[in-house]
Amino acid sequence: MAPKSEQRKSSCKACHQRRVRCDGQTPCGSCSRARKPLTCEYSAPKSPEASRPVHRGTACLFCR
């Protein structure tokens, strides 16, 4: 098992599409067993601002 700094939080694109558990390695165990290690790709991590929901109209509540 890889140290926490090397582990990924999300599954690779192939595991996500096949809906199987991904171990976060490169290539992951599922892709290696499927003999498709070249298709094991991870998406870029999202920035914290991108994951924050946008609430419209809440600024006006503070102005009241």
UniProtKB/TrEMBL annotation:
This is Zn(2)-C6 fungal-type domain-containing protein. GO terms for molecular function: DNA-binding transcription factor activity, RNA polymerase II-specific; zinc ion binding. It comes from Mycena metata. Residues 11-42 form the Zn(2)-C6 fungal-type domain.
